Structures are given as C-alpha cells and as structure tokens.
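Example S7 (structure tokens).
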C-alpha cells in the first residue's frame, strides 16, 4: 500500500543505528507528525538508510510531504504495523 500525506513534524524519536551482516552501516530515524487533514491526526513513521547516516532529515516544526508504505510483521504470535517513509519533501509555507 503506497500512501502520501502532509503535515508538521512534532517529535524526533531517538536514532537507532548499527551494521549489517555485510558490514554496511544502517540508520533508522523515527518521527511523529500531525497531518493537515480536517481532523488532525498524529502519525509515527520511520526513515531507513543502509548507506550510512540519513542526509538532511526533517527537523521539529518542519512542514513536510511524506510518501510512505504501511507494512505488517509477526513477532511471537502478535502482529505489528510499521509506516516506512520512502520520500520526504519540505513544504515551503
């Protein structure tokens, strides 16, 4: 499922990073945004990089347009959703 929404970055969660089995660096950054829809809702999404640190991540207060997919996975007989951002563009106001 591919989706797109616009909103304001409210929170930047702690960064997670490490190395792959092949020795490449990876980084995961998570953000919470408030959407610009009629009834404002909040959405948590993640950005991934497998080529080292993420370049130009959004900052708190930025207005952004996020293209994302929603994926589900099972862990210990429970299901979890994850919103993965593929593209983030800053919106000029």
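Recovered sequence:
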């Amino acid at each position: 499922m591919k989706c797109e929404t616009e909103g304001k970055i409210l929170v930047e969660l702690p960064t997670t990073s490490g190395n792959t089995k092949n020795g490449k660096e990876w980084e995961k950054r998570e953000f919470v945004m408030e959407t610009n829809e009629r009834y404002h809702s909040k959405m948590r999404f993640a950005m991934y990089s497998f080529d080292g640190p993420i370049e130009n991540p959004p900052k708190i207060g930025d207005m952004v347009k996020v293209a994302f997919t929603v994926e589900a996975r099972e862990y210990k007989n429970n299901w979890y959703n994850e919103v993965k951002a593929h593209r983030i563009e800053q919106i000029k106001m």
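Notes on this example. The mean pLDDT is 91.
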